[in-house]
């Protein structure tokens, strides 16, 4: 179990990401990752990623997150495990054109797989995962959740920005985050002891549905009507 958090300030917003803002979001989830913590804030301070680490697969410091690819055009924070990462790495190595900085990190496999296949790379992933990925070339933030929804991923769009995290309380570290009750979700909770996605008990906070991704551009446009799914998988 790790903890991920992040924020993207849209182009029409005056909000800028500070390290203290992002650190508060990250460290309220310290229990999810006692083995270390990382942070990345883009030079223009519009994008920030935070990570609490529970080291499982690659224990080296080179496998620390947030992690970038070799030229810094992709950045990722990732909670979970890609079970078939070794097989995907072997496929990518056979294709060539990728420079690796870790020996067996499944996080780095996500980066190079996205480089190679774009969002279709999730079709290859077998595992449990919540991923936040920033594409500096396309200026797009991708949020991705595993097929069953083992790993949680919450997000909120407000005041000219999108925030996301592994836990709701990280989003509540933003003082401008709406905190009112989602009455429809409360009805579901009383009826079924659960709140189905995209609902949460907070009206301003949503959870990404299992087996889906959300793409958000720097201008705040999100691929909501066509939110991508990857239920159908193929063997490779």
Characterise this structure.
The protein is 19% helix and 27% strand. The protein is built from 5 helices and 12 strands. Helix 2 (85-95) packs across helix 3 (106-117). It is globular and about 50 Å long. Residues 231-236 have low confidence and may be disordered.
The neighbouring-strand order within the major sheet is 2-3-1-9-8-10
Rounded to the nearest angstrom, the radius of gyration is 17 Å
Helix/strand structural class = alpha+beta
Contiguous runs where pLDDT drops below 50 for at least 5 residues: 231-236
The average pLDDT is 91
**Topology pattern, helix = H, strand = E:** EHEEEEHHEEEEHHEEE
**In percent terms, what proportion of residues is strand?**
25-35%
Largest sheet: 6 strands, antiparallel
Count of extended strands: 12
Gross morphology? globular
Helix count, DSSP H or I runs of 4 or more residues = 5
Assign a percent range to the helix content. 10-25%
Q: Termini separation (Å)?
A: 28 Å
What is the topological layout?
Layout lengths: L2 E7 L9 H9 L9 E5 L5 E6 L14 E2 L5 E9 L2 H11 L10 H12 L9 E9 L4 E6 L8 E5 L2 E5 L2 H4 L11 H10 L13 E2 L4 E6 L10 E2 L7
Antiparallel strand pairs: 1-3, 1-9, 2-3, 4-5, 5-6, 6-7, 7-11, 8-9, 8-10, 11-12
Helix pairs in contact: 2-3
Give a quick rundown of the structure.
This protein has five helices and twelve strands.
Task: Supply the key terms.
6-stranded antiparallel sheet, 5 helices, alpha+beta, disordered C terminus, single chain, 236 residues
């Amino acid at each position: 179990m790790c903890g991920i958090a992040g924020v993207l300030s849209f182009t029409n917003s005056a909000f800028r990401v500070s390290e203290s803002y992002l650190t508060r979001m990250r460290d309220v989830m310290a229990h999810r990752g006692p083995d270390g913590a990382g942070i990345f804030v883009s030079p223009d301070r519009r994008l920030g990623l935070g990570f609490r680490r529970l080291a499982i697969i690659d224990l080296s410091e080179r496998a620390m997150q947030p992690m970038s690819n070799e030229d810094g055009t992709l950045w990722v924070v990732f909670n979970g495990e890609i079970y078939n990462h070794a097989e995907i790495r072997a496929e990518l190595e056979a294709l060539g054109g990728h420079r690796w900085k870790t020996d067996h990190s499944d996080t780095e496999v996500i980066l190079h797989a996205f480089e190679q296949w774009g969002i279709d790379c999730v079709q290859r992933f077998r595992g449990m995962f919540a991923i936040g990925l920033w594409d500096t070339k396309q200026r797009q933030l991708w949020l991705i959740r595993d097929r069953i929804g083992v790993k949680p991923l919450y997000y909120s769009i407000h005041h000219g920005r999108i925030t996301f995290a592994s836990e709701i309380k990280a989003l509540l570290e933003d003082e401008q985050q709406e905190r009112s009750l989602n009455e429809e979700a409360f009805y579901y909770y009383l009826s079924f002891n659960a709140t189905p996605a995209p609902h949460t008990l907070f009206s301003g906070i949503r959870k990404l549905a299992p087996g889906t991704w959300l793409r958000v551009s720097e201008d705040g446009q999100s691929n909501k009507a066509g939110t991508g799914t990857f239920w159908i998988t193929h063997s490779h």
